[in-house]
Amino acid sequence: MEVAKVLDAKGTACPMPVVKTKKAIEEIGSGDILEIHATDKGSKSDLTAWAKSGGHELVDQAEEDGVFKFWIKKA
């Protein structure tokens, strides 16, 4: 999977991971993939809902050593 941009939102609490994701996704092209790293447990449901509401596609998600990783494809 080719990632256009990686966003480090580790150490931030709600709503910052979503706010930072919104800003970062505006900086990439349509169809590009944004990889997000977050430590806030709430980001799991927040980013999933945000991607869906914006028409973006949550391609994959994983958890690694307490870090949640998301791959969102821009609509």
UniProtKB/TrEMBL annotation:
Family, per entry: Belongs to the sulfur carrier protein TusA family.
Highest classification ranks of the organism: Bacteria, Bacillati, Bacillota, Bacilli, Bacillales
Location of the UPF0033 domain: 7-31
Pfam families from the UniProt entry: TusA (PF01206)
InterPro entries assigned to the protein according to its UniProt record, in alphabetical order: TusA-like, TusA-like_sf
Name of the protein: UPF0033 domain-containing protein
Domain of life: Bacteria
CDD domains: SirA_YedF_YeeD
SUPFAM superfamilies xref list: SirA-like (SSF64307)
